[in-house]
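FAQ: What does the model actually see?

It sees only this:
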Amino acid sequence: MKIKLIIILSLTLVLTGCANEFNRVFKSSDLDYRYEYAKQCFAQGQFSRAEILLQDLITTKKGTEEAEESLYMLAMSQFMNADYESAAATFKKYFQSYPRGVYAERAMYYVGQSLYQSAPEPRLDQTPTIGAINAYQQFLDFFPNSPLYESAQNRLFDLQDKLVMKELLSAQLYFNLGGYFGNVSSSTESNYSSCIIVAQNALKNFPYTKWRENFASLIMKSKFELAENSTEDKRMERYRDAEDECYGFINEYPESKDRSTAEKYITKCKKIVKD
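And it is asked to produce this:
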């Protein structure tokens, strides 16, 4: 028990001493002393202290030899402190100020990394995701030979998957709503039509998505449901369209779990069109 108490008291004294030292440095008018202490904090992983000191120093160091390094350390400290929005802005500021600087390549990479960390899950607004994609694409364009190229490219693909998943969830929602028309002003057809439009646009924008079959299945099912719910003047045309879509689906995905559904639709379409 005594040993534990001694350890606790020792740690308290050390921490108090460190806090007192930081306060002395923070209040010091010696800019070089404060800068060197900020660098020491950064090197030791004390990013919160480094950020506090560097926030003030980047203004006073402007135009000096330390200006570039201090701005980069501030951005990296913000990133390590999980203040990703501020980090993205500071990394971007660094690259704009020093496009050929020592840390230019890493700064542009970390603009994307910061926005990547802020990207929300697919059901939410994807504006930050689009920003991260644009940042990574800029990095790939500026630094095609970077050792970070593959990492940035993989992150970009991950972010694109988020956008595709959002579209898939949206298309699935329209299909699930089906005959419910409380969300539209016209008729029960609107949900199925919206599903088709969303899915087709997703395939157009992301033709190599791993969820291509899912979109194709939703298009096929929605076209059949459109035919089923059609007015007499559109009925035959839509059954033919649904039948063609089913054949196209089977040709592209012969091993699909939805093949039996497509075949069932074809049988129904042929019977209606023939009669």
